Amino acid sequence: MISFIIYAHSFRKDNLIETISSLEKNEPNLNAEIIIVFQDNVDVPISCKWPIKKQFLNIDTYKKPFMCNIGVGLASNDIIVILDSDRILPENYFYNNLQIRPKEIITTKYLRGYKANGSSFIENRSINNEINCKNLFSGNTMMWKCDWFGADESFIGYGSADNDMTATALQTCFATFLDVEERHLYHPTEIIFGGRTLRNMEWGLVAFTNLLRYVKKWKIDRPKVFRDAGWWKRNIYKYPEDLREFFFSVYK
Questions:
Q1: pTM over 0.90
Q2: In this structure, what are the phi and psi dihedrals at residue 232, rounded to the nearest 5 degrees?
Q3: Which of 6, 30, 72, 245 is deepest in the core (most CB within 10 A)?
Q4: Are 195 and 157 in contact (CB under 8 A)?
């Protein structure tokens, strides 16, 4: 048995439904449960042969680490998969990896993204946890529940939470990147922060603040990040109060 933990918002329900439908179709030999942790409180009807647990958080800001911690706590099985609500894996991918070892964390080496017009491109997934790259916790991550480390919930909104989860996990576990391609379904680049949708420079400010938090926490030598922090500070008056407070919670 395996527990799939999916963190989601109802505004991406089409991605969510396709992800679960493809998972069910591509894993005919798997016994599983699905745990969906919704950021909001809007139910999405889903038909599936496996049992589904739904948790509605009704929070106004996207918080991946918090949602993952909730989902892992609800998991009934020894093996878990942290799965984005917009990912498609090949046939029998998870069934073929049920022999995962304790302390091992598995993901795919290759990631194919899709655009609104249907065209595709290769996304950069780093096996070395480089900043501004997809990594071990970006999309699908398979591991033993007993190896879950408790994600740092200070990372909110978009950006660097995956890097932080990877860095934390690799303190006690090891990574396996398989020669397999994962599909990343198209959706608009947007997040919910403070109950509203952020785009463009507001989105960029949140992502940068999380990046700054990450490099400070892990004492990573990235002079450009700190130079950029000065630019954001000089221009911070252009942004809403909650985003200013979020920035200054890290820029000290």
A1: yes
A2: -65, -40
A3: 6
A4: no
